[in-house]
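Postdoc handover notes: sequence design on the structure in folder B. Input tokens:
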């Protein structure tokens, strides 16, 4: 095997290949010109050597599989190509330089985002240890033989301690192994030498003449055959569903594929169409044609249900006579009364389906199937139902890897390993309601479009992250300098809008820092329960966070929980209703938001139970059967329920510490305000203490500064003296509502006065205004 490998290496040298071609041409020319026996003899000998090389040497396979190799005869498990390079290289440097020129190795470099210059050439590597490492990698990959890809990967792993190549690329060993497996799955010819054979696809010449014409059918349907023959679809990870579909059709039943968008329903139908047409399926599914129903074409020009049924009858008659046609109907509920088409063809189809005259493969989502199809028992009886469950993580990722070459081929843009993994990790954020691998494919395709506009020919991890962030406004990448600065000083930024409440500002800031550092659970939202009297800053704190971190107060979804004090409110909260937008609808549209649940204690216990699920696993299923993710939200629930308890404890001089928190939770549970399991679901319970006079003064100053800034934009300068501030503090606050009435007091007594004088032209651009009070404590205004 070793000697043959050397011959093979010699024959593969580019100059030798050129000389062989030149010699063949020269000998053929001599034979034609001279017609001498000597040139003919030499040409014959030359051709015999070429035949021997191509059909004997070049097709040699390893005598021993890697699984049977105990390490004593390592080279017996090398492919001819790997062994030829290995034994013909003068040293390790020469070996690696030769390997790098191979397309398999170029594939690994591209997917790992390596460059050739980054591959260090070290001469202190033992060839025996390298071979042993390559054998081990081939065994882990469950391969048949050691390939050139295994040799190169072995070198990278063997030298990692010295080069830190993987470390610098932020690649773990397991991730690099995935790239190796990907390369092995992509380039299989080296490991699987096959003899030449001729195969024929599809129907024989004139075979379709045996079947009837389908002129009427083609008016309303699309022939899928050209598409599947061009794409040659392969089904990965849905083998069980594929077998169930075949079994149902063999039983002469039609099939409905039920799964979320992106689960692979259409891919299964296209794979079945391809394998059927090329004759890879036997029985009554061999050489079948697949036509997709176009509902809009079927409806076009039909004036009533009777005319439509007559048209459908003529189509079905053609299909029955044809005998080799299967109808594919995406979203089959659309012809069963579930859409704006106002179309229900179930009554027409059932008799034909019962007798097996026509065969249909339809698709539907779980929600649509349960709502529109399942109640129609006569229809369900004639269909086999194949349900597409969510694939496990490893299967879903592999499915996405298998889709990647199609994306690359269509776009002429390369995808790195990290880019595909990023698409897998962030697809649920990018496309709520879709599942893998479809969601990941869509994200990759959209990212490809973005990088092509940027005139790049490769998609990297950061490109995928940028695409997700640009659409969802969700910060998912490594925090950049600006965001790091905000996170590190978030308490200070919050205090520019919120007076005191140190505990609340610290709790929120620490929570956000945990999220962005990757320490927070990725399967549930971060959540807070704000407890305290009215008017102490609970809602303002939520607004401040929405403004600072989410980019604006419009990113806050506020829900008045007093409107959900009865069990009927559950249906409204779960959304999906045509006449009202529920919480799930809002979160579905804006997954990266702050949710403020105001007066949380007033919601009915059934609503509280719903939020047990939200706070625990970050999702809710709405009235449509759609699962909505809350993972990227921050949930803040506010409550005044323990206001009197908090006031009394603070009056007693108690400090808000762990003992205070424990007593407060005991109070809430004893009085049946919140269940213990609900309180335990919140990441943190934050107590807002009543405001003292000093805090009220600072809040008044903050509000007046906001007003002053607004007027400054109009080139009007306004100032307020201490007497006015003292009046606002005294008259604008009461114990029950805290600081909440302050804004209304300022609006009624100051802003209204300014607005009136501006309309009367008593205050103009460039004026300076001073607000104060006179001896009667009446507000005065001086304009200059």
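Designed sequence:
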């Amino acid at each position: 095997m070793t000697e043959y490998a050397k011959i093979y290496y010699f024959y593969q040298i580019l100059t030798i290949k050129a000389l062989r071609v030149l010699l063949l041409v020269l000998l053929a020319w001599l034979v034609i010109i001279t017609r001498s026996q000597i040139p003919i003899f030499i040409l014959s000998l030359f051709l015999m050597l070429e035949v021997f090389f191509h059909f004997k040497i070049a097709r040699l396979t390893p005598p021993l599989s890697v699984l049977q190799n105990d390490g004593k005869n390592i080279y017996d498990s090398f492919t001819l190509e790997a062994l030829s390079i290995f034994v013909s290289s003068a040293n390790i440097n020469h070996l690696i330089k030769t390997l790098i020129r191979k397309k398999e190795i170029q594939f690994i470099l591209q997917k790992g985002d390596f460059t050739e210059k980054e591959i260090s050439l070290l001469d202190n590597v033992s060839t025996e240890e390298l071979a042993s490492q390559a054998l081990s990698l081939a065994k882990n990959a469950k391969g048949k033989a050691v390939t050139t890809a295994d040799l190169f990967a072995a070198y990278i792993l063997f030298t990692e301690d010295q080069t830190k190549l993987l470390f610098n690329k932020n690649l773990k060993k397991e991730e690099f192994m995935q790239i190796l497996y990907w390369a092995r799955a992509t380039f299989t010819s080296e490991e699987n030498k096959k003899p030449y054979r001729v195969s024929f696809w599809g129907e024989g010449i004139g075979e379709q003449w045996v079947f009837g014409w389908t002129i009427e059918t083609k008016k309303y349907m699309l022939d899928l055959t050209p598409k599947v023959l061009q794409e040659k679809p392969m089904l990965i990870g849905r083998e069980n569903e594929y077998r169930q579909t075949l079994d149902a059709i063999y039983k002469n039943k039609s099939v409905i594929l039920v799964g979320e968008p992106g689960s692979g329903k259409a891919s299964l139908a296209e794979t079945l169409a391809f394998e059927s047409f090329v004759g890879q399926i036997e029985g009554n599914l061999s050489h079948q044609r697949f036509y997709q129903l176009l509902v809009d074409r079927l409806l076009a020009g039909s004036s009533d249900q009777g005319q439509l049924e007559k048209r459908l009858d003529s189509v079905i008659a053609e299909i029955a006579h044809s005998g080799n046609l299967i109808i594919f109907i995406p979203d089959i509920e659309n012809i069963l009364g579930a859409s704006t088409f106002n179309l229900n063809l179930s009554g027409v189809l059932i008799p034909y389906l019962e007798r097996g005259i026509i065969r249909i493969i339809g698709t539907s989502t779980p929600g649509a199937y349960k709502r529109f199809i399942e109640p129609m028992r006569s229809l369900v009886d004639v269909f086999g139902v194949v349900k597409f469950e969510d694939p496990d993580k490893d299967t879903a990722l592999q499915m996405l890897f298998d889709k990647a070459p199609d994306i690359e081929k269509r776009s002429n843009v390369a995808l790195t390993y990290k880019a595909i993994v990023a698409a897998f990790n962030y697809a649920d954020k990018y496309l709520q309601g879709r599942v893998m691998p479809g969601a990941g494919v869509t994200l990759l395709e959209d990212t490809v479009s973005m990088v092509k506009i940027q005139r790049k020919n490769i998609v990297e991890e950061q490109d995928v992250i940028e695409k997700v962030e640009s659409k969802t406004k969700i910060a998912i990448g490594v925090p950049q300098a600006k965001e790091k600065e905000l996170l590190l000083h978030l308490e200070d930024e919050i205090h520019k809008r919120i007076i005191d409440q140190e505990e609340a500002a610290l709790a929120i800031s620490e929570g956000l820092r945990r999220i962005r550092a990757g320490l927070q659970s990725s399967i549930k939202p971060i959540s807070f329960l704000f407890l305290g009297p009215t008017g102490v800053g609970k809602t303002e704190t939520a607004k401040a966070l929405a403004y600072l971190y989410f980019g604006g107060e419009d990113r806050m979804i506020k829900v008045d929980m007093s409107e959900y004090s009865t069990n009927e409110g559950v249906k409204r909260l779960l959304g999906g209703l045509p006449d009202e937008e529920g919480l799930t609808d809002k979160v579905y549209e804006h997954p990266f938001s702050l949710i403020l649940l105001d007066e949380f204690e007033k919601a009915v216990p059934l609503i509280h139970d719903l939020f047990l699920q939200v706070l625990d696993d970050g999702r809710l299923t709405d009235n449509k059967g759609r699962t909505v993710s809350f993972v990227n939200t921050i949930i803040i629930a506010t409550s005044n329920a323990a206001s009197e308890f908090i006031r009394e404890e603070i009056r007693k001089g108690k400090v808000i510490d762990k003992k205070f928190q424990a007593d407060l939770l005991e109070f809430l549970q004893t009085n049946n305000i919140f269940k213990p399991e609900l309180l335990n679901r919140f990441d943190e319970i934050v107590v807002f203490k009543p405001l003292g006079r000093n805090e009220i003064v600072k809040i008044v100053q903050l509000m007046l500064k906001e007003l002053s800034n607004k007027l400054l934009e109009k080139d009007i300068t306004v100032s307020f003296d201490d007497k006015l501030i003292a009046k606002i503090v005294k008259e604008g606050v009461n114990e029950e509502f805290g600081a909440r009435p302050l804004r209304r007091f300022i609006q009624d007594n100051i802003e209204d006065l300014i607005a009136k004088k501006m309309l009367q032209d008593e205050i103009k651009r460039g004026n300076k205004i001073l607000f104060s009070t006179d001896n009667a404590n009446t507000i005065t205004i001086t304009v200059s």
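Context for whoever picks this up: The mean pLDDT is 82. Don't rerun without checking with the PI first.
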